[in-house]
Amino acid sequence: MPSSRFFHTLIVCCCLFATAACSRAATPDAPDTPDAPNAPVKTVPDAEGCTVPPQPLSPYAAAADAPGYDKATAHDPNFADRKIWPLTTGKEAYCLYKWPKGRVLVWAKPGTDGGTNAKKGLNVEDPANWLEDGKPATELWDEKTDLVIPDSEKTYSVSFAGSKRQQRMRHVTVGRNVVFVTGGDGVGRVVLGNLW
After folding, report:
1. Sign of dihedral through CA atoms 66, 169, 133, 140?
2. What is the pLDDT of residue 72?
């Protein structure tokens, strides 16, 4: 069991860290911002009373506002668009790798639940509940198939749990307001490529 000396040391270190963080944040030498180099940064007090400069928007959060953001998927990430991928150079291995062309199945009824039995909505193992090239699919996915479960205004669930067959798929794109349930039944799902 840790001694009281350990806890005392821990508390002192935390206090020193907090004091140092407040003093660093309150320094008048504000870093340059990309929008206005050498411009003063307005500071605001935080909950602890430290004065901190406002933080720039994360590159990942800024990417969500890029015009092509909603069109990028696991099977077509659009790495060339620097507004979506601001921290990539384009020379990373994942940017250069070209996946062979494969089938793309899209959940046919965004907003409608799906599962492996009638109680969970549409059957995910019925090819008619997936679209391929805009038409009902005629066969299920395999390891060369990409799945897209589209955005919806309403939250919905697509569950693969309870399936009797092992599912192997290449890429899976899970849209906004989708609950993607993949396992817990011991059968297993394998996503060989990207999961978004």
Report:
1. negative
2. 77
The candidate with the shortest Cα–Cα distance to 89, out of 98, 97, 80, is 80
Contact between 41 and 33 under an 8 Å Cβ cutoff? The reply is: yes
Alpha carbon 193 to its chain centroid, in Å, reads 15
The residue type found at 10 is L
Q: Is the pLDDT of residue 186 over 70?
A: no
**Other beta carbons within 10 Å of 128:** 11
- Helix/strand/coil for 74: coil
> Please, is 140 exposed, middle or buried when counting C-beta atoms within 10 Å of its C-beta (0-12, 13-18, 19+)?
middle
Sole residue written with tokens 């790495």: 79
Classify 36 as helix, strand or coil.
Answer: coil
Query: Hey, what amino acid is at 177?
Result: N
Query: What's the chain's Rg over C-alpha atoms?
Result: 24
What is residue 25's predicted lDDT score, i.e. its pLDDT?
44
Residue type at 35 in one-letter notation: D
3-state secondary structure at position 70: helix
- Long-range contacts made by residues 52-55, C-beta under 8 angstroms, separation at least 24? 52/25, 52/26, 53/25
Q: Which two tokens stand for residue 150?
A: 């589209």
